[in-house]
Specification:
heterodimer; A: about 350 residues; alpha/beta; Cytochrome-c3 Hydrogenase, Chain A, domain 2; 2 domains; two-stranded antiparallel ribbon; 9 strands; B: mainly alpha; about 0% strand
């Protein structure tokens, strides 16, 4: 299946109208001007399938599951099919040496032009030996492939920020892709897993403009990670009214009140779940009655507990008892010192006699 | 350190350290003050109506006759920001949740919008009191570094807390972390500055009242 993308789409029964609609939606999602939708449609329709090499490192395949399955058979799924996925272990038919050859061939054929997608963190402990593919460490593979890529998309919180493998005590020395590769443009698409449309949005932008979308401080596309879950949450009015669910099965929970007290991390999490939703717009975690875990934020796993409100102490106050004992002891010691001083002054006191005054 | 790590630190180890220093300081000073030891007054007590420790505790919460007119900013401003602080600290729902998680006890709170209004009024009162301190030559002369420092320590949690709730100036994560940090600074310095009056004010009034009551002087 080579040739322009539009031909493939037509073959799959996608009408011009629905393709235009899709491009317009994508453009508006990414806060691009209306004309960009048309430009996007033109560019994407004419585009040859870009070569994509997908490297899975320390990951759970959840990101692949999310992107390949949840939207199927929607346009996102199809467009994703349309990229020339030259190497993806989970999805490719090839295995063993054949697969490794495919990787080398894809690098050779598209040097400097392919998009490198990475999911999973990079293990650096024991020289990266914690995670190997075909006898090569992830670290080695990344350093081998990355220099030839046009750009890197770090899919999922593990690739973007280290994610769960990097959670304390981080036995494998897991790091983010951006900790290893410094000289290539990297787009972070965090989430555990990330929203599929964010992924295709980045791809569409790359195809249309030949560049990566505008990124925030943490390398995330601003269009999708510009606002917090909390600011866009449909339960926000309850927060403002001070109506909170206290447990997962009380009246407040049934009435759909705010989940802040149950540990929702919405106020500190930047993602598009509240607007784009999941499973073709069916629902999303907060709508399902569970607070946001903050999975698209760095180190969300060590954020002080999923079920503790943000205003709660993250850890038990371990020093309190010791400090109280030490304080009490210091107080007693100080008063002994004070009394000794007083006693000393009393002992040193000399009585003034009449004779002294007449001197 | 990103803002989430900053928030987790102030909620975790930072809070632990601050509460530790706070408890250490408070117990140290309270015990030291209590064990200072005074000589027993062997003179027979002169009992007079209104002369006792308890009377003094209440009497000194009310301005003496004519003083409100002479020094309205100190009295009215002082009342407003002290009552405001107590309402905000002890009756704002997230704060009650905090106390519940630390102490295991909770009590009913006030509506968030009301607390919001109280915060604005309290901050205004504190600013007015500060300007009065700067404006009046005598007050300015009597002020030391500690006076300016403790005013700042008290004001910062109010300001950062209000900005957090209103989602102003900085992202919520950073603002909340700054709010908690400012409270931690307040906790750390409270036992070792004049802010310790939060613990000693009624004790010292009662003590002074008792001594004077023994002498038959209602003060």
């Amino acid at each position: 299946m080579q040739g322009p993308l539009i031909d493939t789409l037509v073959r799959q029964g996608v009408s011009r109208r629905s393709f235009m609609k899709y491009c317009a939606t994508l453009a508006s999602l990414m806060a691009l001007p209306p004309a960009a939708g048309r430009a996007m449609a033109q560019a994407m329709a004419a585009a040859r399938r870009p070569s994509v090499i997908w490297l899975p490192f320390q990951e759970c395949t959840g990101c692949t599951e999310s992107i390949t399955r949840s939207h199927s058979p929607s346009l996102e799924g199809m467009i994703f099919d349309m990229v020339s996925l030259d190497y993806q272990e989970t999805l490719m038919a090839a295995a063993g040496h054949q697969a490794e050859e495919a990787l080398e061939k894809a690098i050779e054929d598209n040097k400097g032009q392919f998009l490198l997608i990475i999911d999973g963190s990079v293990a650096t402990g024991l020289d990266g030996a914690y995670s190997c593919i075909a006898g090569r460490t992830n670290l080695d593979l990344l350093k081998h492939v990355a220099p030839h890529a046009a750009a890197i998309v770090a899919v999922g919180s593990c690739a973007a920020f280290g994610g769960i493998p990097k959670a304390k005590p981080n036995p494998t020395g897991a790091v983010a892709v951006s900790d290893i590769i410094k000289d290539k443009p990297i787009v972070n698409v965090p989430g555990c897993p990330p929203i599929p449309v964010v992924m295709t949005g980045v791809l569409a932008h790359f195809l249309t403009f030949g560049s990566l979308p505008e990124l925030d401080r943490l390398g995330r596309p601003k269009a999708f990670y510009g606002e917090t879950i909390h600011d866009r949450c449909y339960r926000r009015p309850f927060y403002d009214q001070g109506k909170f669910a206290k447990t997962f099965d009380d009246e407040g929970a049934r009435k759909g009140w705010c989940l802040f007290e149950l540990g929702c991390k919405g106020p500190v999490t930047y993602n598009a779940c509240a607007t784009v939703k999941w499973n073709a717009g069916t629902s999303w975690p907060v709508e399902g009655g569970h607070g946001c875990l903050g999975c698209s934020e760095p180190d969300f796993w060590d954020g002080g507990g999923f079920y503790k409100a943000l205003s709660m102490p993250a850890d038990p106050l371990k020093m309190a008892a010791t400090a109280a004992v030490v304080g009490a002891a210091a107080g007693v010691a100080a008063s002994f010192a004070n009394r000794a001083k007083k006693g000393g002054a009393k002992a040193a006191h000399e009585t003034v006699t009449l004779a002294d005054l007449e001197k | 350190m990103n803002e989430m790590q900053f928030l987790t630190w102030v909620r975790g180890p930072g809070l632990d350290i601050a509460v530790g220093i706070f408890l250490l300081g408070v117990l140290w000073r309270l015990i030291e003050i209590y064990l200072l030891g005074r000589k027993q007054d062997v003179a027979p007590g002169r009992h007079r109506e209104g002369a006792s420790g308890l009377h003094t505790v209440f009497r000194r919460s009310v301005p003496p006759p004519g003083m409100v007119k002479r020094s309205p900013v100190s009295y009215i401003g002082g009342y407003i920001f002290h009552i405001g602080l107590a309402l905000i600290v002890f009756f704002f729902m997230p704060h009650i949740l905090f106390f519940k998680s630390v102490l295991g006890i909770s009590w009913p709170g006030l509506p968030s919008q009301f607390i919001d209004l109280v915060t604005v009024v309290t901050m205004a009162a504190m600013v007015v009191v500060l300007f009065d301190r700067i404006n009046k030559p005598v007050k300015r002369y009597l002020s030391t570094f500690q006076d300016w420092f403790t005013w700042t320590l008290t004001f910062l949690p109010l300001l950062t807390g209000w900005l957090t709730v209103q989602h102003l100036l900085l992202p919520y994560t950073t603002m909340l972390a700054l709010h908690i940090l400012s409270v931690e600074l307040l906790l750390i310095f409270l036992p070792f500055t004049k802010l310790f009056h939060a613990f000693t004010v009624f004790g010292s009034r009662w003590y002074i009242g008792k001594i004077n009551g023994h002498r038959g002087v209602p003060v």
